[in-house]
Every structure is written in structure tokens, then in C-alpha cells.
Design brief:
This protein is an all-alpha fold and about 130 residues long. It has one domain (about 10-120). It is about 65% helix and about 0% strand. The chain has helices at about 15-45, 55-85, 95-100, 105-120. α1 packs antiparallel against α2. The protein is elongated and about 60 Å long. The relative contact order is 0.17. The model has no long low-confidence stretch (mean pLDDT about 85).
């Protein structure tokens, strides 16, 4: 599993590659960043999360967490688009998924559908319009 592979939007990603990314990269990063942010909120409160009272270490943790989530999000775009390609769907369906997730009332149903479709459905057999 090469990190640069995740930046590619070409080709297909089987369920195996998708779940490796989710379980080895995305989930641990979200757990660590969530714990760091929870610690900072507990220490400083939500209103003073970015203020002059924060130590340099706390500021580095905060921005390190934001950068980590940004990098993981960019990497997840590539693997998700290639997973959609494996299902013989255009990568533009990711825009629909992201839009549905941004609507609060649809967040849980769209996440469940996304996990079922992306993580559980087998890809198309043989060659499709996106490759082998």
C-alpha cells in the first residue's frame, strides 16, 4: 500500500484496498486527532480554543490535527473515486455523497448507504469503462 497510490484518480480500487485505507490510515488518524482535540477543548474550552493563552505545544497539536485531517481527506478522495470506478460509477458521485453528508438530517442514512455501497458491494466483473 503506497501512499502516492491514494492520490491517483485513475483505475479501480477493490474492496480490499478501500478497507485497508479506512482501517490503517483514515480511522486511526481520526481517532488520534479526535483525542487531541477533545484534550484541547477540555483544557481550554471551546470558546478559547484558539487564543493567546494556549501554549506553543497546544497550538502545534491543534494545527497538526487540522493538517492531518486535511491530508487524510485528500488521500481519501483518490481511493474513494477509484472505488466508485470499480463499481462502474463515475467519480462525480462523490460530490453527491459529500453533499448528502453535509445535510444534517441525511448524514446518518447517507453514511450507511455509503459504507454499504463502497465497502460491501463487489466491483464489476472484468473490464469496465475505468479499466481492469
Amino acid at each position: 500500500m503506497k501512499i502516492l497510490e491514494f492520490l491517483s484518480f485513475e483505475g479501480r480500487a477493490r474492496r480490499n484496498e478501500f478497507w485497508k485505507f479506512v482501517l490503517i490510515v483514515q480511522l486511526p488518524a481520526q481517532i488520534v486527532v479526535g483525542c487531541v482535540m477533545a484534550y484541547l477543548v477540555a483544557k481550554h474550552g471551546t470558546c478559547r480554543l484558539i487564543c493567546s493563552e494556549m501554549s506553543r505545544a497546544d497550538i502545534c497539536c491543534f494545527f497538526g490535527g487540522i493538517i492531518t485531517l486535511g491530508v487524510v481527506s485528500v488521500l481519501s478522495l483518490g481511493v474513494t473515486v477509484r472505488r466508485l470506478h470499480d463499481l462502474n460509477l463515475s467519480g462525480w458521485w462523490l460530490v453527491v455523497i459529500i453533499t448528502l453528508n453535509s445535510i444534517t438530517i441525511l448524514r446518518i442514512p447517507s453514511l450507511v448507504i455509503g459504507v454499504v455501497v463502497l465497502g460491501c458491494m463487489p466491483g464489476s466483473d472484468g473490464r469496465n469503462r475505468f479499466g481492469e
